[in-house]
Design brief:
The complex is a heterodimer of chains A (335) and B (253). Chain A has 335 residues and is mainly α. Chain A has a single domain (4-332), classed as Orthogonal Bundle (ABC transporter involved in vitamin B12 uptake, BtuC), CATH 1.10.3470. Chain A is built from 14 helices and no strands. In chain A, helix 4 (98-111) packs antiparallel against helix 7. The model of chain A has no long low-confidence stretch (mean pLDDT 91). Chain B is of the alpha/beta class. Chain B folds into 2 domains: 1-77 and 159-175 and 183-253, P-loop containing nucleotide triphosphate hydrolases (Rossmann fold), CATH 3.40.50.300; 83-156, no CATH class. Chain B contains 9 helices and 12 strands. In chain B, the strands form 3 sheets. Chain B has a 6-stranded mixed sheet, with helices on both faces. In chain B, a hairpin with a 6-residue loop joins strand 11 (239-242) and strand 12. In chain B, helix 4 (113-125) packs across helix 5 (141-154). Chain B is globular, with a radius of gyration of 18 Å. The model of chain B has no long low-confidence stretch (mean pLDDT 94). The chains are: A mainly alpha (335), B alpha/beta (253). The A-B interface holds A 84, 87-89, 213-214, 216-217, 219-220, 222-224, 226-227, 229-234, 238, 272, 276-278, 280, 332-335 and B 46, 49-51, 71-72, 74-76, 78-80, 82, 85-92, 95, 98-100, 102-103, 105, 107-111, 135, 137-138, 151, 155.
Chain lengths: 335, 253
């Protein structure tokens, strides 16, 4: 199932995710009503639906669905890019410290009782600064294998940032701030408003477009470094561009939704299973599949129990067995 | 001369591995590099590919100083066939060969129709067209080596550099790869390869360069340079010659 049919399967998952996301929950909107509302919005005519349905659709469920799709796509695209760049299929988007940097930014924001916008901005900046620091330190060390040094620096800096998060949690007010921090660190899309989409959409689109533009070069970048250079790839500048783009989308999605693991690790494998490892087909497939995947998980998060289940917990619970099953089939090489 | 190196010093940063190396290669010529492990063969090849900067001396490629050439320009003149590796991701053989066209396009460009047809033609030329859609990770070692040669040819280079092209190949595939090397030269390419088998150099190279401890021990036509005494000095080990006078072969004893 390589090629066009694989991409079609990813699109089918996304469409199914959208239909289910609107159709279930406290205020179900069936596919027929959804189409009516979309058609009305596209043509600028009144839809004739009850105002309550319109409100849920455009103010509550719609933004959340869009956010889930964007965050899922962003994490999947970043994971795909990093796995290729580091020539390792076990790499996820937080390998260079984007998530831990964002986490530290967010908990500091909560500690100082900043507004939601302030917390998100601090998380976003934290993610970017952490990866920039890892990249600068890793490049300055220059010991032997650049890629390996970069990954190890990421692990070390990530651990330090983790200690910082621990310290902030220790200092936080245990009745108000600590639950907010814990909730943020576990990831959630509840309470996503239309205004939240703007700071998410811009960076995710920009980073994804850069990675898509470089898709053919990324094939060669996933070869051993010397081979890539002998093929005429300027590996240094290209690596910096890929890291910057992947970090931008990761930081934007983490600051919007908190820490959501596993998506960036599992979805690229699924996408490779569908269309093979060539980036020109892999990247768009991973984006679409990642969007559909996180949307389905988020729908589960808000409907499976009387209270919302944090996304980070569900992605781990769904992701772990899934990944083990994948390891069984992928033993012949990372198809 | 398509490739010329004069008084070359090679190494990594402050660590000099070899010096006073001279080398020249004409189009249609095959040059073999022989020498013990750690003697500087691979470093020399990497220097000639522009992967490791030279520590001294000068290299001219197609008449131009090496330092004037950018990464992409260089890749259009000299291609690299690395030692066979398993690969991380299961690209198809076609995708792998198509990567040889990387230097022909801008950073955001997709391969053109011509790129695709060149890749297909090179698969055909090496007799592996039937493997086009197979994952590179799942074909045999010999087939992978041929795919890597096809990728190098897709660069439409004037020089091809092969790092131990027969290492880890079975006997039959060693012959197949050496014959391909000969046919590259027949098509007008300059070819340099490193090897641990003096017999490959004797049969398939026009000239040889013997390197030990980063210094050139001898260089010249294969038939005159590849003698028992030279090889014994090169490897510091006893070597026997069979079929002397006619079609000789060397054996380590």
């Amino acid at each position: 199932m390589r090629g066009a049919s694989g991409f079609a399967a990813a699109v089918a998952v996304l469409l199914a995710g959208v239909v289910v996301a609107f159709a279930v929950g406290r205020f179900p909107i069936g596919p027929a009503d959804l189409l009516t509302a979309l058609h009305a919005a596209a043509t600028g005519t009144p839809s004739g639906l009850p105002p309550a349905v319109e409100t849920v659709l455009w103010q509550i469920r719609g933004p959340r669905v869009l956010a889930a799709v964007l965050v899922g796509a962003a994490l999947a695209v970043a994971g795909t890019a990093f796995q290729g760049l580091f020539r390792n299929p076990l790499v996820s988007p937080d390998i260079l410290g984007a998530s831990s940097g964002a986490a530290l930014g967010a908990v500091v924001g909560i500690l100082f009782s900043l507004s939601v916008v302030g917390i998100q901005a601090l998380a976003f900046a934290g993610g970017l600064v952490a990866v920039a620091a890892v990249y600068a330190i890793g490049s300055a060390l220059r010991g032997g294998d650049t890629i390996l040094v970069l990954v190890l620096t990421g692990v070390v800096v990530g651990a330090l940032l983790g200690a910082g998060v621990g310290l902030v949690k220790y200092l936080a007010d245990p009745y108000n701030q600590l639950p907010a921090m814990t909730f943020w660190l576990l990831g959630s899309l509840s309470g996503t408003a239309p205004d939240d989409l703007v700071p998410l959409l811009g960076p995710v689109l920009l980073g994804t477009l850069v990675l898509l533009a470089l898709r053919w070069r990324m094939n060669a970048m996933s070869l051993p470094e010397e081979e890539a250079r002998a093929l005429g790839v300027p590996t240094g500048p290209l690596r910096a561009a890929v890291v910057a783009a992947a970090t931008l989308v990761t930081a934007a999605s983490v600051s919007a939704a908190g820490i959501i693991g596993w998506v960036g690790l599992v979805v690229p494998h699924l996408a490779r299973f569908l269309v093979g490892p060539g980036f020109p087909r892999l990247l768009p497939t991973a984006a679409v599949l990642g969007g559909g995947y996180l949307l389905l998980i988020d729908t589960m998060a808000r409907t499976a129990a009387p209270v919302e289940i944090p996304l980070g917990i569900l992605t781990a619970v769904v992701g772990t067995p899934f990944f083990i099953a994948l390891l069984r089939t992928a033993r012949k090489g990372w198809s | 001369m398509i490739l010329e190196a004069r008084d070359l010093a090679i190494g990594y940063g402050t660590r000099t591995i070899g010096r006073n190396l001279d080398l020249h290669l004409a189009e249609g010529e095959v040059l073999a590099l022989l020498g013990p492990n750690g003697g500087g063969k691979t470093t020399l090849l990497k220097t000639l590919l522009g992967l490791v900067p030279p520590l001294g001396g000068e290299i001219r490629l197609a008449g131009r100083p090496f330092a004037d050439l950018g990464v992409r320009e260089r890749a259009r003149l000299v291609a690299y066939v690395p030692q066979v590796h398993a690969g991380t991701f299961a690209f198809t053989v076609t995708e792998m060969v198509l990567m040889g066209r990387t230097a022909m396009a801008g950073p955001f460009e997709a391969p053109s129709a011509r790129d695709h047809s060149v890749a297909a033609a090179m698969l055909e030329r090496l007799g592996i067209a039937h493997l086009a859609d197979r994952p590179y990770t799942l074909v045999s070692g010999g087939e992978r080596q041929l795919a890597l040669i096809a990728r190098a040819l897709a660069q439409e280079p004037r020089v091809v550099v092969l790092d131990e092209p027969t290492a880890s190949l079975d006997f039959g595939n060693q012959g197949r790869v050496m014959r391909e090397i000969r046919s590259l030269a027949a098509a007008g390419l300059g070819v340099i390869f490193s090897t641990h088998d003096p017999n490959h150099a004797l049969r398939h190279a026009d000239r040889v360069l013997l390197i030990r401890d980063g210094a050139c021990l001898a260089s010249g036509p294969s038939r005159t340079v590849l003698t028992r005494s030279n090889l014994e000095a090169l490897y510091r080990s006893k070597i026997a010659v069979v079929g002397e006078g006619g079609d000789p072969a060397f054996l380590p004893v």
